[in-house]
């Protein structure tokens, strides 16, 4: 695919740097493909004026995931009056039909950053965004076949670890990733001893809730074919598998059917709560000695879906987990969606789990009732959008078996109404208003909590400053919230339990207000700043975040993050403030040689980590990595002065990794 874009050289915004990083901060071309022509799934490929690449997959018509990475080639060049890009997409990276003559879905899109202007070959409505079901067609394709070839991706790894318990005999020296294309529609993917030393660590966050933080999947093996397993209630969460020893996937499609089978043997660990020695009365501070027990876990996932374009879809998902120390059992779920027209979409899900007894969980089998039931109605047109959800989850439904650990024993009703106003040829491009009504309780309709949220957004596009987004919102909450310290309950309190433990209700009337400013990321300096105030009966929490991005030039980017939470009057948290800091440097030494450094500190866990990663892509898809990592804890006394120029720093671990990986097609 070749695209010629008419534009004066001096007006083209082109940033070099790592693949996919800050892609939307410059002029670029996006290409959308629907090789199966099922009007529901597809791929997108982007090439910037600087030849930076961007790609991903599309599912459910207009849901996008940029976590898939294909191996393909591109080129770009800027002339005085125009610039061009060319993309070469190997058939081996695409799933397409097994027909002699084929029709594919196709659309080409151009973005002019300085104007904030989108242009499409097959124009879509900006109110609804790109939909695979509405793109154009590429007809008359003949003789498209994929050879039966094996992609072998071996890795060699050398690691030095300063940890006191480090055993060189257990050090991983090699890894292997395999992909075999059986035909156009079927593939086998495997991994043995995968290593993720080059993957950037998760960003430190401040979490003062009772529930864990969602972490995005970044590991290549788990991203392969991930979309087929997605369901409406996060029943599939691969971050549950922390350290896989080996894994295999079978992915395929035939006609209107899509299916997959996925197996992972995980080297798991669990915290032995009976061996934790508390060092603080503050539950928000992780001042504990944690003893981890290593154990093996087996995960099996099966998925089949019937897809009739963008009209109807129904699927079945099963998960089988065998573990000695974590949840062990089976999950079965059926989900479906129906779109009678372009405005409405109905989605439903029904799931059940069967938890087996093991060394930790006893008397868990065959508990009733046990289900997760969900119904949603979505509406979206040129100006209005809406959402209604009816969601019940019993206390015996164990979503954290292999899904994201959301609280069970819940009943939720939610209504969302949104309205947009758009303006042409003005600095103010859009105003959006949103109202969200949420009513939640236990499954037995106890401890009811009601919240009203009002949100507004103003989007500007200035010739000199670029894009500016202002957001503001207010939330009011009334009713009873769950409090998990049942020792503070009295004899008159209603006590219940969920998958996070026993709880009772405390009266809570809370007000939340927030304000966010986002500036144009394509400019030399940009920032995102937010202020949030939560006023509860028991405490007041003020949160401030300030994230900056400074482009010294096209090759050097400096960024920082600052999060601060000040807590007043809380009887549960004795520390008055929590903070998290981060600093990152990204430098493009050569078009295929990058270095990234990032440091993070969180006062909630008192952890400080420093990381440096060199990445050299000597052939597309083949890399050398050199990674350095150190992590430790900062204390408030003078016990430690080793491992860093910082005083009171206890070095826990220092790791140096050298990794080589090469892509071969056999």
Radius of gyration: 26 Å
Percent of residues in beta strands: over 45%
Number of strands: 38
Shape type: globular
- The CATH architecture of the domain at 2-142 is Sandwich
Question: Number of helix segments?
Answer: 1
Report mean pLDDT, rounded to a whole number.
84
Helix content: under 10%
- Briefly note the structural class of the backbone: mainly beta
Q: Low-confidence runs (pLDDT<50, min 5 residues)?
A: 273-290
CATH class of the domain at 2-142: Mainly Beta
State the end-to-end distance.
26 Å
Please give the largest β-sheet: 24 strands, antiparallel, barrel
- Return the CATH topology of the domain at 2-142: Immunoglobulin-like
Write the layout of secondary structure elements.
Blueprint: E1 2-6, E2 28-34, E3 42-48, E4 53-59, E5 63-65, E6 73-78, E7 82-88, E8 101-112, E9 117-120, E10 136-142, E11 150-161, E12 174-183, E13 186-192, H1 220-223, E14 244-254, E15 257-271, E16 277-278, E17 288-289, E18 292-308, E19 312-323, E20 329-338, E21 344-355, E22 372-380, E23 384-393, E24 410-422, E25 428-441, E26 449-462, E27 466-483, E28 495-498, E29 501-519, E30 525-535, E31 540-551, E32 556-568, E33 577-590, E34 593-602, E35 607-619, E36 622-634, E37 649-661, E38 664-665
Antiparallel strand pairs: 1-7, 2-3, 2-8, 3-4, 4-5, 6-7, 8-9, 8-10, 11-12, 11-37, 11-38, 12-13, 13-14, 14-15, 15-18, 16-17, 18-19, 19-20, 20-21, 21-22, 22-23, 23-24, 24-25, 25-26, 26-27, 27-29, 28-29, 29-30, 30-31, 31-32, 32-33, 33-34, 34-35, 35-36, 36-37
Short description:
The chain has one helix at 220-223, and strands at residues 2-6, 28-34, 42-48, 53-59, 63-65, 73-78, 82-88, 101-112, 117-120, 136-142, 150-161, 174-183, 186-192, 244-254, 257-271, 277-278, 288-289, 292-308, 312-323, 329-338, 344-355, 372-380, 384-393, 410-422, 428-441, 449-462, 466-483, 495-498, 501-519, 525-535, 540-551, 556-568, 577-590, 593-602, 607-619, 622-634, 649-661, 664-665. It is mostly beta strands and 666 residues long.
């Amino acid at each position: 695919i070749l695209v010629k874009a008419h534009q004066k050289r001096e007006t083209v915004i082109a940033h070099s740097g790592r693949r996919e990083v800050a892609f939307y901060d410059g002029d670029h071309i996006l290409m959308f493909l629907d090789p199966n022509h099922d009007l529901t799934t597809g791929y997108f490929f982007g090439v910037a004026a600087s030849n930076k690449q961007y790609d991903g997959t599309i599912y459910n018509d207009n849901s996008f995931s940029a976590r898939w990475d294909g191996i393909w080639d591109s080129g770009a060049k800027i002339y005085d009056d125009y610039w061009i890009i060319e993309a070469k997409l190997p058939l081996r990276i695409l799933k397409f039909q097994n027909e002699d003559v084929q029709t594919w879905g196709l659309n080409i899109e151009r973005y002019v950053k300085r104007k904030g202007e989108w242009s499409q070959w097959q124009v879509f409505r900006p109110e609804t965004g790109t939909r695979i079901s509405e793109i154009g067609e590429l007809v008359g394709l003949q003789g498209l076949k994929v050879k039966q070839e094996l992609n072998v991706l071996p890795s060699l790894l050398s690691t030095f670890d300063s940890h006191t318990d480090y055993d060189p005999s257990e050090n991983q020296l090699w890894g292997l990733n395999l992909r075999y294309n059986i035909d156009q529609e079927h593939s086998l993917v495997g991994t043995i001893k995968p290593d993720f030393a080059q993957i950037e660590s998760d960003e430190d966050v401040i979490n003062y809730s009772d529930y864990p933080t969602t972490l995005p999947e970044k590991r290549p093996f788990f991203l392969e074919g991930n979309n087929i397993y997605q369901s409406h209630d996060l029943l599939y969460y691969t971050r549950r598998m922390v350290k896989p020893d080996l894994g295999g996937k079978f992915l395929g499609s035939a006609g209107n059917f899509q299916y997959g089978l996925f197996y992972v043997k995980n080297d798991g660990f669990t915290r032995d709560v009976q061996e934790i020695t508390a060092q603080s009365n503050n539950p928000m501070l992780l001042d504990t000695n944690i003893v981890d027990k290593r154990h093996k876990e087996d995960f099996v996932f099966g998925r089949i879906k019937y897809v009739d374009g963008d009209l109807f879809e129904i699927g079945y998902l099963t998960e089988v987990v065998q573990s000695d120390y974590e949840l062990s059992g089976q999950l079965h779920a059926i989900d479906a969606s129906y779109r009678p027209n372009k405005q409405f979409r109905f989605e439903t899900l029904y799931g059940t789990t069967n938890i087996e007894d093991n060394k930790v969980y006893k008397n868990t089998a065959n508990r009733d009732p046990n289900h997760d039931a969900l119904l949603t109605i979505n509406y979206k047109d040129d100006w209005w959008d809406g959402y209604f959800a009816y969601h019940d989850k019993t206390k015996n439904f164990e979503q954290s078996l292999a899904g994201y650990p959301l609280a069970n024993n819940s009943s939720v009703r939610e209504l969302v109404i949104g309205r947009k106003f758009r303006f042409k040829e003005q600095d103010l491009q859009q105003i959006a208003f949103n109202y969200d009504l949420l009513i939640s309780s236990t499954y037995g309709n106890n401890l009811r909590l009601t919240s009203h949220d009002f949100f507004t957004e103003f989007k500007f596009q200035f010739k000199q400053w670029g894009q500016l987004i202002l957001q503001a919102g207010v939330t009011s909450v009334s009713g009873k919230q769950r409090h998990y310290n049942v020792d503070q309950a009295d004899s008159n309190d209603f006590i219940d339990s969920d998958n996070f433990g026993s709880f009772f209700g405390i009266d809570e009337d809370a007000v939340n207000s927030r304000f966010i400013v986002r500036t144009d990321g394509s400019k030399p300096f940009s920032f995102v700043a937010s202020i949030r105030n939560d006023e509860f009966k028991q405490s007041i929490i003020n949160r401030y975040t300030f994230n900056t991005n400074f482009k010294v030039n096209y090759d050097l980017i400096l960024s920082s993050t600052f999060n601060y939470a000040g807590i007043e009057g809380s009887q549960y948290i004795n520390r008055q403030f929590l903070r998290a800091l981060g600093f990152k440097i990204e430098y493009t030494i050569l078009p295929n040689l990058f270095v990234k450094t990032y440091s993070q500190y969180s006062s909630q866990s008192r952890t400080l980590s420093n990381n440096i990663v060199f990445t050299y892509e000597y052939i597309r898809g083949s890399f050398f990595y050199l990674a350095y990592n150190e992590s430790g804890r900062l204390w408030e006394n003078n016990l430690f002065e080793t491992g860093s120029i910082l005083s009171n720093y206890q070095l826990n671990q220092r790791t140096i990794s050298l990794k080589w990986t090469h892509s071969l097609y056999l």
